[in-house]
Automatic annotation (TrEMBL):
<dbReference type="Pfam" id="PF01257">
    <property type="entry name" value="2Fe-2S_thioredx"/>
</dbReference>
<dbReference type="InterPro" id="IPR036249">
    <property type="entry name" value="Thioredoxin-like_sf"/>
</dbReference>
<protein>
    <submittedName>
        <fullName>Uncharacterized protein</fullName>
    </submittedName>
</protein>
Length: 96
């Protein structure tokens, strides 16, 4: 699962660097526990990267900061919301 955090000026001013750091720790912990077999989830690996501005916040200044998870755009992104979305997707098959 690919997580992209916008590194554009507006997003950075509104905390995307903090979101990136917190999500990076989350990704590292998730992947570590997955490799150790401590998580009973579908076989997904998380990856995270900073991306250049994708112009989402230019459509509406209130959209920043932007985080994209597997193509799903989160505007006015909050770390906890992103983490919850990722965990919901990871455990999705377990609760069907």
């Amino acid at each position: 699962m690919k997580i992209e955090v916008c590194a554009g000026a507006r997003c950075t001013m509104l905390g995307s660097d903090i979101i990136f750091n917190r999500l990076s720790d989350f990704v590292e912990e998730f992947n570590d526990r997955l490799y150790k077999g401590e998580l009973d989830v579908q076989d997904i690996e998380l990856e995270i990267e900073m991306i250049t501005c994708n112009d989402e916040c230019k459509k509406n200044k209130k959209n920043a900061p932007i985080v994209i998870v597997n193509g799903k755009v989160f505007t006015n992104a909050k770390t906890e919301v992103i983490m919850e979305y990722i965990l919901d997707k990871a455990f999705e098959d377990k609760f069907k």
